[in-house]
Specification:
The chain has 23 helices and four strands. With 557 residues, it is an all-alpha fold. Mean pLDDT is 77; it is low at 1-69 and 530-557.
Length: 557
């Protein structure tokens, strides 16, 4: 949000960029002919309450060429798969060791806010489905600078994440002896080529791949839940450190209770837990290519409550009841740790291979989603001038291949660099990606708040699918995201260096804006609606109506 509206610390990158990019009003850019075009675009209409309103922004050009190839079953699985990834399958082990059983509470709290973000996104999607997702909404509600910063921060997120994903795939493949002889960079490159090829064919291929990726992850979790419950109900023994261990709540009592290491470690790990939910916003991107959006999107979003409660919170609770928190460790899937504790080495080996396949699937799923979403985001940005014009190129099959190839090019560079970069620097790159996620989620909430404000003024249609408890829940979500940034800053050294990287990121965004500004404003000036005549500030429609009246008087003179 712009400074005069009270910027949220959650959107630190956007707030600084938009506060720094100061320049003259669009009047200096609009010559006499363009002034008339601007005046025409401010013609008012009446809504069903009889209140004068500005014409709705026309962003339909962003959707030209796309095919509605995603089916309801695919979108449901995309929604599920977006919230289940390596953050749970791999990262939960180290976090359990740090926070103990309290990690379940951390996942629950983060999951509640993830649900709020999805419900806010649902309001925006039903207002106007768009493959540009929150970037397009940022342009509609806050103007061009906001959309520019949000878009490139999101691209930064997925570019970094794609680098991590390809490397992770290579590491997971080398778990099996058949791949140990192959160089890591070659396996990473093969993974990228395979997923890239699937994304270049058609959206239905992406949807089908993501459907099966998500199905594998869900099946693995359901299998664990069933086995874990059986082990608890029948009190079957497990082994930890070579000794038999009693399962159940007694494990908590014998190992320091709910907060064995204190409250602070449980609070600190929330920054890592938040990013276990990364990619939930993919539902918004997919909405632009989905059939029956009004019915499918609410159903997909509402299902989040169930899967958060069962898959995330349920899994963590069961893991903490089956083994002492000290049995879990960083770098090993907690599910592998549990199955290896059943006392049979052969079972442990088999399950280890199965879970490695599941984690491999999660990494491929993330890479698949990254290429899909950034391709659409860059296409939307290119259509509005925020990205190079060639990123708007689209195949006959409705695939924005130019944007996808740009992301893939960054990923190839990352595969090469990863050969030389130390592990700590690699972690910093992953944390930089997290800044893009916070920016995306904060943008979604701010756009929802503006949409609700306009609806109350009769300047937009009242949403039928709403964020519960808004605006209180919206403000709480922004405060939560801001607290995550603070926790990152005090998490020395990686988190501190990540926040410090904004010193480099923000100037790059500013330079990029000025390089693209003329094209952005030229395109925006031709667009009717809120951000047309005033593309810099994204004026409120009510103010636009008043300005339209004033300008009509000026034209008469």
């Amino acid at each position: 949000m712009y400074p005069e509206h009270g910027v949220s610390p959650t959107l630190l990158p956007i707030g600084i960029v938009t506060g720094s990019l100061r320049f003259s009003r669009l009047a200096s850019l609009c010559a006499a002919p363009l002034r008339r075009t601007c005046s025409v675009s401010r013609m008012t209409a009446q809504n069903d309450t009889g209140v004068d309103r500005a014409p709705a922004n026309d962003f339909s050009h962003e959707q030209e060429g796309y095919q509605h190839g995603l089916k309801p079953r695919q979108l449901q699985m995309i929604a599920i798969g977006g919230a289940i990834g390596t953050g749970l399958f791999l990262g939960a082990g180290g976090r359990l060791h740090t926070a103990g059983p309290a990690l379940a509470l951390t996942y629950l709290i983060a999951g509640i806010f993830a649900f709020f973000i999805l419900r806010a996104l649902g309001e925006l999607v039903l207002h106007r489905p768009s493959s540009g997702s929150f970037i397009s909404y940022a342009r509609e509600f806050y103007g061009e600078k906001f959309a520019y910063a949000a878009g490139w921060m999101y691209f930064l997120n997925w570019a970094m994440t794609s680098i991590v994903d390809t490397t992770a795939v290579a590491i997971y493949l080398q778990y099996w002896s058949a791949f140990t002889a192959a160089p890591q960079w070659l396996l990473a490159l093969i993974a990228l080529v395979v997923v890239l090829a699937a994304n270049m064919v058609a959206v239905k291929v992406f949807g089908e791949l993501e459907f099966w990726f998500a199905l594998i992850k869900v099946a693995a979790l359901v299998t664990f839940l069933v086995v874990a419950i059986i082990w608890l109900v029948f009190a079957f023994p497990v082994e930890a450190g070579g000794e038999a261990v009693r399962t159940g709540f007694s494990i908590w009592g014998d190992n320091g209770g709910l907060f064995p290491n204190g409250v602070l470690p449980a609070v600190i790990v929330i920054q890592g837990v938040v990013f276990a939910y990364a990619a939930i916003e993919l539902v918004g991107t997919a909405s632009g290519e989905t059939q029956n959006t009004e019915k499918v999107i609410p159903r997909a979003i509402n299902s989040v409550v169930f899967r958060i409660a069962v898959f995330y919170v349920g899994s963590i609770v069961l893991l903490s009841l089956l083994l002492p928190y000290t049995a879990y460790k960083e770098g090993e899937s907690p599910f592998v740790t549990f199955f290896s504790s059943l006392g049979n080495p052969q079972v442990g080996s088999i399950v280890g291979g199965i879970m490695n396949f599941v984690v491999l699937t999660a990494a491929l799923s993330s890479l698949n989603a990254g290429l899909y979403s950034t391709g659409r985001a860059l296409h939307s940005m290119g259509m509005n001038g925020s990205a190079p014009k060639w990123t708007t190129k689209m195949s006959k099959g409705g695939v924005p291949y130019a944007g996808i190839l740009l992301t893939a090019a960054f990923t190839v560079a990352g595969v090469v660099l990863n050969y030389f970069v130390p592990s700590q620097a690699f972690e910093i790159a992953l944390n930089i990606a997290s800044l893009g996620i916070i920016t995306a989620w904060g943008t979604i909430i701010l756009c929802q708040m503006r949409l609700r404000q306009w609806a109350k003024q009769g300047l937009a249609k009242e949403p039928t699918f709403r964020l519960p408890g808004a605006p209180v829940t919206a403000w709480l979500t922004l405060a939560f995201l801001a607290s995550v940034i603070v926790l990152m800053a005090i998490d020395y050294p990686v988190g501190t260096y990540t926040i410090a990287s904004l010193v480099i990121v923000i100037p790059l965004l500013i330079v990029g804006w000025f390089l693209q500004r003329d094209r952005i404003l030229r395109i925006a000036a031709l667009r009717e609606g809120v951000t047309g005549p005033y593309p810099i500030t994204g004026r409120d429609p009510a103010n636009q109506v008043r300005r339209g009246t004033d300008d009509e008087g000026d034209d008469t003179d």
